[in-house]
């Protein structure tokens, strides 16, 4: 973070993802005075952080982080063109937008890292996949990894083409899990539980199972088997859920494919 504090970090777009990352950086020792935010609608939280807000930018920042919606990229990038083709690293978390789109807008020699984080970053439990172009090199990847590891795990991809599948699994994945909590609670209500109790049970079950899956030596499959008594209640439920044509596997396969396809469309 020393290089950031010396040369500065510019963050374009400080909504859900931008705020989660900024909170992690500030907690890791990035000084508020080294951060410049560009966002037309800053939140109250952001205003209280002591960062430069929509102010004149430093001439040679260490990194420009791009966290606007892919659809806003065309409007937003021209303001950053002066940082292209130089030493400034561009780090984008935008879904779908390929490295080639940034290189076209900013110059072919611009160091660019494309990343896909997820919202558990807000509690330091995210996972981010990263991939870089040649001008970014090992140094750019290391800086991106240092920044993103402030909000969780980081994995490096071998090829940018993996990004659509990554987006569909871990980028969008938290939404599938939140929906699981919602629908598990609703099913509990349908079995006669009060709404608050059903939600408490569903939320704690998903959080607890997630923690167990993360920390146990057993595979998720073994952990599932550990819950399943012969001819018991879990076996009855899994017979429905694991149905090959209509169960979870087929449904998630379709959902993840839809997300990956949308990611590819965004990149057109
Ligand atoms: N929300 C998520 O789960 C994830 C989002 N992403 C990516 O992160 C990016 C941001 O998404 P969110 O934070 O969810 O969106 P958001 O809507 O919460 O934040 C976007 C921010 O950009 C600002 N903005 C709009 N136009 C701008 C402009 N011209 N210049 C500067 N700032 C501008 C908005 O005021 C807003 O604060 C997207 O590209 C998305 O694909 C990536 C992984 C996960
Ligand atoms: O829904 C989206 O497009 C973004 C990317 C991954 C999660 N949210």
Automatic annotation (TrEMBL):
GO molecular function: pyrroline-5-carboxylate reductase activity
One Pfam family matching this protein: P5CR_dimer
Superkingdom as given in the UniProt entry: Bacteria
Domain Pyrroline-5-carboxylate reductase catalytic N-terminal: 10-95
Residues the record lists as binding NADPH: 54
Pathway linked to the protein: Amino-acid biosynthesis; L-proline biosynthesis; L-proline from L-glutamate 5-semialdehyde: step 1/1
Catalysed reactions, as listed in the record: L-proline + NAD(+) = (S)-1-pyrroline-5-carboxylate + NADH + 2 H(+); L-proline + NADP(+) = (S)-1-pyrroline-5-carboxylate + NADPH + 2 H(+)
Predominant cellular place of this UniProt entry's protein: cytoplasm
Gene Ontology CC, one term: cytoplasm
Keyword Cytoplasm: yes
InterPro entries, A to Z: 6-PGluconate_DH-like_C_sf (IPR008927), NAD(P)-bd_dom_sf (IPR036291), P5C_Rdtase_cat_N (IPR028939), P5CR_dimer (IPR029036), Pyrroline-COOH_reductase (IPR000304)
GO biological process: L-proline biosynthetic process
Keywords (A to Z) from UniProt: Amino-acid biosynthesis, Cytoplasm, NADP, Oxidoreductase, Proline biosynthesis
PANTHER family associated with the record: PYRROLINE-5-CARBOXYLATE REDUCTASE, PYRROLINE-5-CARBOXYLATE REDUCTASE 3
Record-stated family: Belongs to the pyrroline-5-carboxylate reductase family.
HAMAP family per the UniProt record, alphabetical: P5C_reductase
Protein name, UniProt field: Pyrroline-5-carboxylate reductase
Encoding gene (name): proC
């Amino acid at each position: 973070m020393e290089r950031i504090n010396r040369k500065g970090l510019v963050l374009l777009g400080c909504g859900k993802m931008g705020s989660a990352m900024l909170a992690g950086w500030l907690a890791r020792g990035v000084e508020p005075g080294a951060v410049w935010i560009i966002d037309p609608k800053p939140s109250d939280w952001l205003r209280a952080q002591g960062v430069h807000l929509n102010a004149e930018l430093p001439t040679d920042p260490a990194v420009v982080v791009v966290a606007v919606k892919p659809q806003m990229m065309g409007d937003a990038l021209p303001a950053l063109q002066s940082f292209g083709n130089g030493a400034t690293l561009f780090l984008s978390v935008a879904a779908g937008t390929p490295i080639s789109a940034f290189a076209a807008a900013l110059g072919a020699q611009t160091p660019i890292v494309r990343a896909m984080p997820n919202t558990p970053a807000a509690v330091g439990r995210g996972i981010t996949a990263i991939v870089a172009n040649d001008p970014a090199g090992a140094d750019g990847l290391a800086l991106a990894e240092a920044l993103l590891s402030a909000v969780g795990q980081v994995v490096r991809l071998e090829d940018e083409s993996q990004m659509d599948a990554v987006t569909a699994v871990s980028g969008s994945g938290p939404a599938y899990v939140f929906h699981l909590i919602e629908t598990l609670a609703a099913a509990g209500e349908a079995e006669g539980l009060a709404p608050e109790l059903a939600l408490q049970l569903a939320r704690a079950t998903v959080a607890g199972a997630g923690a167990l899956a993360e920390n146990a030596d057993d595979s998720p499959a073994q952990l599932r088997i550990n819950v399943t008594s012969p001819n018991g209640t879990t076996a009855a439920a899994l017979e429905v859920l694991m149905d090959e044509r209509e169960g979870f596997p087929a449904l998630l396969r379709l959902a993840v494919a839809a997300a990956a396809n949308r990611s590819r469309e965004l990149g057109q």
